[in-house]
Amino acid sequence: MDIQLDVKNLTHVFKTGEGIRDINFQIKQGELLTLLGPSGCGKTTILRSVGGFIQNQQGKIIVGQEDITSLSPEKRPTAMVFQSYNLWPHMTVFDNLAFSMKLKKMSKDHINERVQWALRLIRLENTAKKYPSELSGGQQQRIALARALLLNPKVLLLDEPFSALDAKLRYELREELREIQSKENLTMLFVTHDQEEALSISDRIIVMNKGDIEQMDSPRSIYNEPNTLFVAKFIGKMNFIEIPIADHKASIGNNMYHFSHTNSSKLTAAIRPEDITIQEGKGDWLASIKKIMILGHYAEVTLETEDGILKTFVEKRKLESLHVHDQVSILLQDVRFFEGNDWIKYIKKEELPTCITV
Amino acid sequence: MWFFKSVSKRNLMEFLLVTLFCLFFFMPLVNLVILAFSGEWQYPNKFPTSWSLEWWKFVLENDEVSRSIMLSFSIAIIVTILSIIICIPAAYAFARLQFPLRRTFLFSFLLTNAFPKMGLYVAIGVLFYQFGLMNTFTGIVLIHMVNTLMYMTWIPSAAFKNVHASQEEAARDAGASPFKVFWHVTLPMAAPGIIVASIFTFLSSLDEAQGTLLVGIPDYQTMPVVMYSIIADYPSTAGSVFSIILTLPTIILLLAARRFLGADAMANGFQMK
Ligand SMILES: Nc1ncnc2c1ncn2[C@@H]1O[C@H](COP(=O)(O)OP(=O)(O)OP(=O)(O)O)[C@@H](O)[C@H]1O
Ligand SMILES: [Mg+2]
Q: What transmembrane ranges does the database entry give (chain B) (predicted)?
């Protein structure tokens, strides 16, 4: 597939010293790439650089075959949807949508047809005569999306377009966005700080931290195989335990992990709650139940081990056999180790002879 | 008496206050109108004993008066146009750009209105002497603009600030050059504020007497200047006829402004929360 957007060595540092440094990524035709990261990590800065609203940065931005680095926003083949204040309040919805086509002096019939098409796409057919003030927040953002689509952009840029809306509406709109995106085969660069949103709609995710890219991967890999401790902490729920390391070996319960080389004396083990199973009989590790919190069809169980606290999820029907203060054995499906911020791979896992049974 | 029953105590207070305000505000106006049409009105009588249009005829047929009306309106129009040309770019700069001494500049506009006017005018008058601007049309226009610069910068500047950067950027994105963005988005969105400021400018130029008296004497006599002499030289009826003529444009323009002020409030309502 073709590369639609190619960002090379993009650097833009503000006077304050914050900004983005040496950003490299590509988006394929028809792909939805999400920039995800905590507030202030530089997501908007990247997006605005691509849109042309920040200029004089170092690096290159190429759309299709064309180097657009030095073009002004009105000349770029990109379209942007802002977080809010997208629409022009003195124009009707129709005029908002028709603005770009009127500038290009297209024929009235053509404009009408295109506006109708866009309104159908976002399912707001009978709002053409209304003013933006007469629409709800969600409708306004959909109109803004339609207006951006009418520019026929090669790359569509969205800066947290749904973040001002309530959770339910946000959910609906991102479903709708994903639908439109695949129907129209749009190439999109999407910014959010909501990881659920990112995981659910993206083809690929870039996780950012303080102006740098931490990891660029599919949602599944970002979740299952975080490359850095930062990503592991930022995405989803995760248990972290500090464990000492000696002689390139570290042990959790009765499992011994071997590493080829380590520099520090401590590692951080990261375990997803769903990778911990509580069982009767033989297990990896001994724990006592500290707390059980019912959260609907499942419960969050807090376990105390000799190395630290772990949290896991248990289905409702398995809960009956569990009581606070019970001694249980637990099984670890997957453990990921980090040395400092970086993921470190173990080369061997060895079961110690000391058997744990409850 | 459903009306009084339906109003609570607090509403009653409001009602009384509004009534008082109306009396205070409109009594002199009513009195003025009655006086303007009266023929004979001696002290103990509550109303004139005879009505007449005599002084209307006098004022309207007086050459000096009609010339002063023409002069006042042409000055006001020119002052308004010039103020718009000078102040709109300045207002936009104050709203959008960060430059050194920005606050000082804004403050200096206030300063011209903080001094006692006459002192300022005398100081300006001295300057005008040196440049040969005394007793000239240009001189009067300039001295009027000393006052109007403030409205014309502050009010539109606030209006420009209400236009969000992303609304301008969205228009750039849609393919508009910076000038077209200003023309199609920024200016129309700030228009209510600019219109209101222009009306204020127009009216304040129409009303200005002190500076005009100082700079325009003896050849340039505007409405308010002429009114001083009419009030001094003729019975009070002539004065009231003249004040009605002077107030008329104010009332008409304020009614027009009210329409746009309503539009302004609407524009604020447009913004997404
Ligand atoms: N115009 C500017 N001048 C100076 N510093 C800026 C400017 N714009 C952004 N910054 C700084 O650059 C950093 C990155 O900002 P950016 O807006 O890209 O963050 P973000 O990831 O979009 O955050 P958020 O999720 O809060 O929108 C921030 O620390 C911010 O303070
Ligand atoms: Mg942002």
A: 12-37, 69-94, 106-131, 137-160, 181-203, 237-257
